[in-house]
Amino acid sequence: MCLAIPGQVVDVVDEENRLARVDVAGVRRKVNIGLLDGADGGALPGDWVLIHVGFAMSKVDEEEARATIELLEGMGDDYEQELEELKASVIE
Fold first, then answer.
1. What is the pLDDT of residues 49-61, one digit of tens each?
2. Of 3, 1, 19, nearest in space to 51 by CA
3. Domains in the chain, start-ordered, CATH in brackets?
4. What is the pLDDT of residues 19-42, one digit of tens each?
5. 52 contacts: CB under 8 Å, gap ≥ 6
6. How far is it, in rounded angstroms, from Cα 56 to Cα 63?
7. Rama region for 39: left / alpha / beta (φ>0; ψ in -120 to 50; rest)
8. pTM here?
9. How far is CA 72 from the centre of its chain?
10. What single string gives the DSSP state of each residue in 57-92?
11. How many C-beta atoms lie closer than 10 Å to residue 23's C-beta?
12. What residues contact 90, with CB distance under 8 A and at least 6 apart?
């Protein structure tokens, strides 16, 4: 199962390639934020984004992010598997 999971942008680590470090449930990974350029000023540190296959797909507010996290945690094994796959992924 593929899920879009919420994460909070920590910092932009590569402006040219549009890569940001994002915290997802305590796991920090680089994701591409380029798809959000032009939408409400793009993704900035502190913003919440929905991430799928290494890309930030959309911005969400903190309330929606937390509600989504609660829902995902309720999925149990599917959510845990998604987090394990995130831990194993690396974007350089």
1. 999 888 999 999 9
2. 3
3. 5-87 (2.30.30.140)
4. 999 998 888 999 999 999 986 778
5. 2, 3, 4, 5
6. 18
7. beta
8. 0.81
9. 14
10. EEEE-HHHHHHHHHHHHTTTHHHHHHHHHHHH----
11. 13
12. 29, 30
